[in-house]
Input
Amino acid sequence: MKICSSNYRRAFSHLNELALFWYYLFNGSRRNVRGSNNLLLVDQQALSLTLKNVSFKITGNENTVVIEKGARISNTRITISGSRNKLVIGEGCNIGHLSTSSLWIEDHDCQMFIGKGTTIGGATIGVSEPYSKVTIGNDCMFAHGIDIRCGDSHSIIDLSSNQRINFPKDVHIGSHVWIARNAQVLKGVTIGENSVIGTGSVVTKDVPPNSIVAGVPARVLRTGVTWAREKIYREAVTSHDEPETAISLPIN
Output
């Protein structure tokens, strides 16, 4: 596996700089790569990158993993089986800080994009079957136990026609989406920006922007909202009662 820093191909001029690069990049991490012309492309500010307990298992040819500056990845398995696939982890992402994560791609010509500033406590994100794609926007916040995939990895056959009926469908998650713990996002779903997905939800249909959804299957509980990472308190509290407009949601 060829490893480059850059934008993305800056050469190291000093051996000690190269040693530091390898230490910060692969401290506690493992690589198992079989094939040819597989690339790990690391931004030129590679020393601000932290990989801890990350395993790379790649089988195939011409696969590309891009890790942009300031990313922090821990307790994560990155698995690619096939050829001409691409995984991009955006600037300032933080993945695997609450529990184990798995980013996996099967087959050929697949893509997975994770936008800058996105935080993932622990998730399994899978792209399977040729030309499939999962895209995650900027500044998303995922808890742990999240499962996102765009295919079933196995075939379901209609007996009357003897044809397969469960083909993959891309998943698109907009920017600034909060997905609470143990939620699942199934194939073919688009989640609009600024939305909130409740704990344990199974999302089977598109979610409008600025919405809260929850349940199995998930349904829209409220629209016209957004969310913030920081806690915002009322300036003056005259009662311990919640405002009449408040709703109780399983989003912890």
In short: DSSP finds one helix and 25 strands in the chain. Residues 8-21 have pLDDT under 50 and may be disordered. Residues 203 and 218 are 5 Å apart (CA to CA).
